[in-house]
Amino acid sequence: MANINHKPSKYMLNLLHVLPVFVDGKEETVNSIVEINSGTIGKYETITESGQLKLDRVGYSSLAYPFAYGAIPQTWDYDNDPLDIEIVNVIEPLVPGCLVEARVIGVMKFEDAGEVDDKIIAVLSDDRRSDHIQSVDDLGEQFKKETTYYWEHIKHLKKPGAGVTKGFFDKDEAIKVIRECEQRYKDIYLKNFE
Asked: Which domain holds residue 64?
């Protein structure tokens, strides 16, 4: 867990920039920093530059996150943030700010106010209760309906119609999205620091 290849430092490490995307080179398991628990209304986000968790905004409605939610290190999506990840089938609340290894099962393509803001869907990699979940389809149609409803309505009171779900796709497509975001991190985010 968390094989950080970094020299000791008197300064705090920012996990968004020192952890690899994939755990031990396994394409289906990614490092993930938990930002939000299921049942939470507030939107918490890891500050990209420093790594601290901050309250990004107070929820605009009574809709609570139906899954744990976080970010994948060393990725950069089109919305100028690390790639988002939904961690489903979590039995016990996860501590915000903690690092988990998540097994990728799919992706939900999504646009937020016209910007690509895809959501990787995963389960905890070492939770035997999730061994039977190998794809988004294994979560059932109700999961897809609830997740679509959540994302399309979470900002409805502030910006009606801002969230548009573009569909659910398999693990291969999810890994393709992760790889693209990993390359975008190298090509765009890191170039700002050269």
From this structure: 25-193
